[in-house]
TrEMBL record:
Rieske domain span: 11-107
Species: Nocardia jiangxiensis
Lineage, top ranks: Bacteria, Bacillati, Actinomycetota, Actinomycetes, Mycobacteriales
Protein name: Non-heme iron oxygenase ferredoxin subunit
SUPFAM superfamilies, A to Z: ISP domain
CDD domains assigned to the protein according to its UniProt record, in alphabetical order: Rieske_RO_ferredoxin (cd03528)
Top-level taxon of the source organism: Bacteria
Pfam families documented for this protein: Rieske (PF00355)
Amino acid sequence: MGNNTSSTERVFACEVDDLEDGDSMSVRADGEPVAVYRIGDDFYATSDTCTHEQWSLGEEGDLDGFEITCTLHNARFDVRSGKALCFPATVDLVRYSTIVEGGKVYVAAVERAA
Ligand code: FES
């Protein structure tokens, strides 16, 4: 009881300096594997595991612009929305909002892409 998930809770993900432009990494945020992507000075976050099979997008994915390609079977996702863009993935990633503050990146408010 009392665990109302509608409130915004933010969880530390990584340091801003952990990622260079165009890089991604996998972190544990609140026990969940989360992929964090840096594009310019903007940070995006989705669930880390490809929705096709078990594969880490943050560690093994190939980030090109706003698209992350799963290097196992080449599914692509838009990191801004989590949307699956092509086969073999048909299920979207979970998208997390990101907050950058004091040189640290936080993820918040799990949103399921419709
Ligand atoms: S595991 Fe990612 S496309 Fe197959």
